[in-house]
Design goal:
Layout lengths: L20 E4 L9 H17 L2 E4 L13 H12 L6 E2 L6 E2 L7 H6 L2 H11 L3 E4 L3 H13 L15 H9 L5 E4 L6 E6 L3 E6 L7 E3 L7 H11 L4 E5 L6 H11 L5 E5 L2 E2 L15 H6 L4 H9 L14 H7 L10 E2 L2 H14 L2 H13 L14 H11 L9 H9 L7 H4 L6 H17 L5 H15 L3 H13 L7 H8 L1 H16 L1
Parallel strand pairs: 1-2, 10-11, 12-13
Antiparallel strand pairs: 3-4, 5-6, 6-9, 7-8
Helix pairs in contact: 1-11, 7-8, 10-12, 13-14, 17-18, 17-19, 17-21, 18-19, 18-20, 19-21
The structure holds one RNA strand of 77 nucleotides.
RNA sequence: GGCGCAUUGGUCUAGCGGCCCAGGACGCCUCCCUCUCAAGGAGGAGAUCACGGGUUCGAAUCCCGUAUGCGCUACCA
């Protein structure tokens, strides 16, 4: 499985550096959704723009909410978009890289790290041990709510007399460590996106730093790790804005200089609320499976909350890196607009080389939900390479490939007489036209688009039907579809044998 | 309820005091191209810049209030 255990703090750790260091700090509680990944993207763009470091740190401090496979899904999501990281878990899940590890908070916890810092705060008079039960806490909050008071810890354990403290230490009950929030004054900080933000301390309660299971809370772990990892900018979603004063207070208590903060606008569901399962497909990997291209997704995501100017909207990742600036990040939440994503995807599909498109389409054609079962796999790549140019400007998502190209592969098309007959014609006329076309096509010396077009256009004239009528009937006879790529190209790629067989069958259907 | 943040067409956005009775894009509609569908081209509908007060010669842009939305208010992150 994995090789030897990594050695932490092994070297070239540049302290005294002014280089930018940012981090993406997801908690492995599920498959990351587009909002999570957008946060990662902004951090990455900023790091790369500034020539700094991008760190991935796994905040797995909640044992109850931990989900198997989540770390892999996070790393896979980043990798899919081409977001690379300088420090953090290795992509294959084996080991980690970077001189500030571990990058898993659960491992840092095992080393006693948070315990040490929590104790330092207790010893310094900035925190205290609390053994209030959850039952008591719950009823306290209930009473507060009933009385119209803001809910919050009532600080019962904050100022225990020496004797009571000793008794508490001896009683063996579960204990947490709480931070002593100043009872007066304000805590304010400068946010790179929202300017000055200020909170009254007396509205903050004594939040927990260390849980009774020994794990740190987000507040403690995040502050300790950002400091130890020398993180310079904390760029995270706006939902964290309200807890930032707690973090600032913690930095103060430790005597550390806080990083710079930038609270990103959130990505919202169609009802403008925080993204959740209720909003349908929200995980990044689902979009991948629906046939969106990573470069289109990256481009689209970057524009959700950031813009360069009033017109530029197409960016490669290098261009994004080149232009990205925190000052150009917006303040308001953005609804994830799938239709625009689909448009973007179409743009990228059209501009890529046909060979690349063929390669990317193949798994969607061969996989489930792809071509009908009667089509043998693997599919003929040479044949595919002739089809792709015909559908390239018609594909929006790769998962439409099978629907668009199915008739090229499968004979399982059943032309209904009613669909064969074009406007202004009847069954007999249609059958006659099809049979005449059959004769012309059989006589063709060369089976290619120009020859087909020349012969069939001439035929329409002779038959005194509109080209649209003849071509429409032929299209349906040969493909079983009313909407296809240009007829002659399509017939040419399908091949003489297949076309004649299908058209013959259609003519017979009309006779019945 | 309290606190915080936000508020430009359905959606993403430009705008950081006069160039804006508001520009671009997606979507929608019409037309052109055309063998269908796309793609492409040309037009169009759609915003009293949330509302009300100020400040200013002048406000989408600054200030205050209100409303609305969202976020936070856990031994979750």
């Amino acid at each position: 499985m994995c090789g030897p255990a990594p050695r932490w703090a092994a070297g070239n750790r540049r302290s005294m550096s002014t280089a930018v260091r940012v981090r993406y700090a997801p908690s492995p509680t599920g498959i990351p959704h587009v909002g999570n990944i957008r946060t990662a993207l902004f951090n990455w763009l900023f790091a790369r723009h500034m020539g700094g470091s991008f760190i991935v740190r796994i905040e797995d401090t909640d044992q109850a909410r931990k989900v198997d496979g989540a770390v892999e899904a996070i790393l896979e999501s980043l990798a899919w978009l081409g977001i690379d990281w300088d420090e953090g878990p290795e992509r294959d899940g084996c080991g980690e890289r970077g001189a500030y590890g571990s990058y898993f908070q659960s491992r840092r916890k095992e080393e006693g790290l948070y315990d040490r810092y929590a104790r330092q705060l207790v010893n310094g008079g900035h925190a205290y041990v609390c053994d209030c039960t959850t039952e008591r806490l719950d009823s306290m909050r209930e009473a507060q709510r009933a009385a119209g008071q803001p809910p919050g810890y009532d600080r019962r354990c904050r100022n225990l007399a020496a004797q009571a403290r000793a008794a508490q230490a001896a009683n063996g009950s579960p204990k947490v460590v709480r931070f002593k929030v100043p009872e007066s004054g304000d805590t304010s900080f400068h946010d790179l996106i929202r300017d000055e933000v200020s909170f009254q301390n007396d509205l903050l309660d004594d939040f927990v730093l260390l849980k009774s299971d020994g794990f740190p809370t987000y507040h403690l772990a995040n502050v300790v790790d950002d400091h130890l990892m020398e993180v310079t900018h904390v760029m995270r979603a706006e939902e964290w804005l309200s807890s930032t004063p707690r973090h600032v207070l913690l930095y103060d208590a430790f005597g550390w200089t806080p990083p710079l903060f930038a609270h990103l606008p959130m990505i919202l569901g169609s009802d403008r609320s925080k993204l959740s399962k209720r909003h349908g497909a929200t995980s990044l990997l689902e979009y991948r499976d629906e046939g969106f291209l990573p470069e289109a997704m990256l481009n689209f995501l970057a524009l959700l909350g950031w813009s360069l100017d009033d017109k530029t909207e197409k960016f490669t990742s290098d261009e994004l890196i080149k232009h990205f600036a925190i000052e150009r990040i917006g303040k308001t939440g953005a609804i994830f607009n799938k239709e625009k994503l689909e448009w973007f995807n179409g743009v990228y599909v059209r501009q890529m080389p046909a060979t690349g498109l063929a390669r990317r389409m193949t798994p969607f054609l061969e996989g489930k939900g792809g071509l009908p079962a009667d089509v043998s796999r693997p599919i003929d790549q040479a044949y595919l390479s002739r089809i792709v140019p015909l559908v390239q400007e018609r594909v929006k998502r790769l998962d439409e490939a099978a629907e668009l190209t199915g008739f090229f592969f499968s004979d399982g098309i059943a032309p209904q007489a009613a669909d064969l007959v074009q406007k202004g014609m009847d069954g007999a006329a249609t059958r006659g036209a099809l049979e005449a076309a059959l004769a012309r096509m059989e006589a063709l010396a060369a089976w290619d688009a120009p020859a087909l077009e020349q012969a069939l256009r001439a035929l329409a004239g002779e038959l005194q039907v509109k080209t649209g009528q003849l071509f429409g009937a032929l299209r349906f006879a040969a493909t079983g579809s009313k909407a296809t790529p240009p007829l002659f190209d399509t017939l040419a790629v399908l091949g003489r044998e297949r076309v004649l067989r299908r058209v013959r069958r259609a003519a017979q259907a009309l006779a019945a």
